[in-house]
Amino acid sequence: MRVYAKNVFQDEHEFHYAAYRSIKDMTGLHDHDFYEVFLTFGGDVYHLVNNQKIMLPSNTLVFIRPNDYHAYERIGQGDCQIMNVAFPSQIMGALQSYLGESRVIDQLFNAPLPPSVTLTLSETNRLLDRFQQLTWSSFMNERSLDANIVFKMMITEVLLKLIPHLDTNREENMPAWLEKLNTQMSKKEHFTSGLSAMYQLSDMSPEHISRSIKKHFGCTPTDWINHFRLRHGANLLVSTDMEIIEVAMESGFENLSHFYHLFKKKFYLSPARYRKANKRDVIPSLQAFQRHQ
């Protein structure tokens, strides 16, 4: 599912705040064309993001970039609360220009997985105070100067907490060639061509590519490519009226039954039921944003 900034932000607003008391009310896998910062507290949660499943301890701060594909999943019978602020790309673009260019800044915006850091309890409480100030501004309809100042202070504080974390354990980071390959393979002309395109785009041997994908993405090259194909197919289902067989072909699947099998395995719904559940004028997950307008 794709969430668009034009359906979220009003002209006079620079951010949207949302508070979730339980992840059971949140939607499934989705991506968007804007930025998001969220903070977990009151429990641990699985973060399904960019084809990986990561356990987030309570008090984890996460920076979601445009095109990060993610959702949340409960751990057993547990649950957690999430505070969330979303904001348009233009705001972060201005801040990115101010920060300048460096390897760390590049990691912040382009690393394969969203940057995250687990905070101390005092750090969490301080950041929650920032969120609460945004809440108060929202309820009091003070969306102009005061609210935007609080918002920008909070985003600055978030980046200051994330950047030092990015600068550690460089050896464990994904190699530059694989980051580049990941970006290239996310393009339709490449993931629809499959393994042949992947091998042509890299100077590494097929064996080395396979080992690296397994290490950094936890799957085989075929599964990795199918992730891009299925994500594209899901977007087509909710954004077009194409027949399902056309969606499968456009996404790179020549066998319709294979597409059905993989799609249901990934999204827990058949393509038809996924379309019915998600193809709406107002995306359900944004109702939480709207309640605070």
Describe the protein's topology.
Elements (H helix, E strand, L loop, with lengths): L1 E2 L12 E5 L10 E2 L2 E7 L3 E5 L2 E5 L3 E5 L5 E4 L7 E7 L1 H11 L3 H8 L5 E3 L2 H19 L5 H22 L9 H10 L2 H4 L3 H7 L4 H12 L3 H19 L4 H7 L5 H12 L3 H8 L8 H5 L2
Helix pairs in contact: 3-4
Describe the fold and architecture:
The chain has 293 residues and is an alpha+beta fold. The protein has 2 domains: 2-171, Regulatory protein AraC (Jelly Rolls); 174-278, Arc Repressor Mutant, subunit A (Orthogonal Bundle). Helix content is 49%, strand content 15%. The chain has helices at 89-99, 103-110, 121-139, 145-166, 176-185, 188-191, 195-201, 206-217, 221-239, 244-250, 256-267, 271-278, 287-291, and strands at 2-3, 16-20, 31-32, 35-41, 45-49, 52-56, 60-64, 70-73, 81-87, 116-118. Strands 2-9-4-7-10 form a 5-stranded antiparallel sheet. Strands 6-5-8 form a 3-stranded antiparallel sheet, with no helix packed on it. It has a two-stranded parallel ribbon with strand order 1-3. The longest helix has 22 residues, at 145-166. The protein is globular.
Short description:
The chain is an alpha+beta fold and 293 residues long. The chain folds into 2 domains: 2-171, Jelly Rolls; 174-278, Orthogonal Bundle (Arc Repressor Mutant, subunit A), CATH 1.10.10.60.
Gross CATH architecture of the largest domain: Sandwich
The computed structural class is alpha+beta
For the report, how would you describe the main beta sheet?
A: 5 strands, antiparallel
At the first level of CATH, the class of the largest domain is: Mainly Beta
User: What is the assigned CATH homologous superfamily of the largest domain?
Assistant: Regulatory protein AraC
Number of helices: 13
Beta content comes to: 15-25%
Q: Please tell me the overall pLDDT.
A: 80
User: Could you tell me the number of beta strands?
Assistant: 10
Distance between the termini: 23 Å
Radius of gyration: 20 Å
Overall body shape: globular
Our count of domains comes out at 2
Unreliable segments of 5+ consecutive residues: 167-171, 280-293
Q: What's the helical proportion of residues? A: 40-55%
Q: Encode the helix/strand succession as letters.
A: EEEEEEEEEHHEHHHHHHHHHHH
**And the CATH topology of the largest domain?**
Jelly Rolls
- Widest β-sheet, arrangement of strands: 2-9-4-7-10
